[in-house]
Amino acid sequence: MKCFLFLFIFLAGKFSYSQPFPNYGTVNLEKASDYRTADPVALQAANYLLSTPFDKNNQDRTNSLKFMAKWMKGTPDYGFPVDRSIGKIFNGDNDNLGLFMAAMVKYTLENKAASKDMNAVKLNAMSIFLTYCENPENKIRMSRPLKKLSEAKANGQLAQALNN
Questions:
Q1: Residue 3 belongs to some domain of the structure
Q2: Is residue 19 part of a domain?
């Protein structure tokens, strides 16, 4: 009986603290104020992408990525440029590029004062992204450039590696 009670309390607590998954279709993104209102939803989408293992067949991940991309494209308050160095790192790997973009959203919305410093956004987003990739549970295959960046991060030289 004690075991059943413990299991019930554990499950009730788990579900009562879980944040409901947003219905992205109900979030209006037409004018500047809509995008500002949707900042928390974009952050939730980015956090979801960066906290769940990669799975192309997970519809929640797909929906989160689509919403986040639409928000990024239209937000008047933040820029998310992908320079040539980022293009070389991901070289057509859209799955990992999407996760890097989620890291950019996460860093930008959690550090609004630093959001205009594109070097800071790029560096910190790459650090967030690499931390995600380094967790084997996330099932990310790291390319040679990503492995080099991961080594540079471990050695405290990520900024230098990104500028090369």
A1: no
A2: no
Tally of domains in the chain: 1
Neighbours of 84 (CB within 10 A): 7
Domain membership flag for residue 64: yes
* CA–CA separation, 89 and 87 (whole Å): 5
Confidence at residue 16, expressed as pLDDT on a 0 to 100 scale: 35
Q: What is the pLDDT of residue 1?
A: 47
Task: Note the pLDDT tens digit of each residue in 115-138.
Answer: 999 999 999 999 999 999 999 999
Where do runs of H (alpha helix) occur along the chain?
2-17, 32-37, 39-49, 59-74, 84-90, 94-110, 118-134, 144-154, 158-163
Residue type, 72: M
Asked whether the beta carbons of 118 and 81 are under 8 A apart, the reply is yes
At 27 the pLDDT is 94
The answer as to whether 9 is a domain residue is no
Using a pLDDT cut of 90, give the percent of the chain over it. 79
Structural domain for 138, as ranges: 28-163
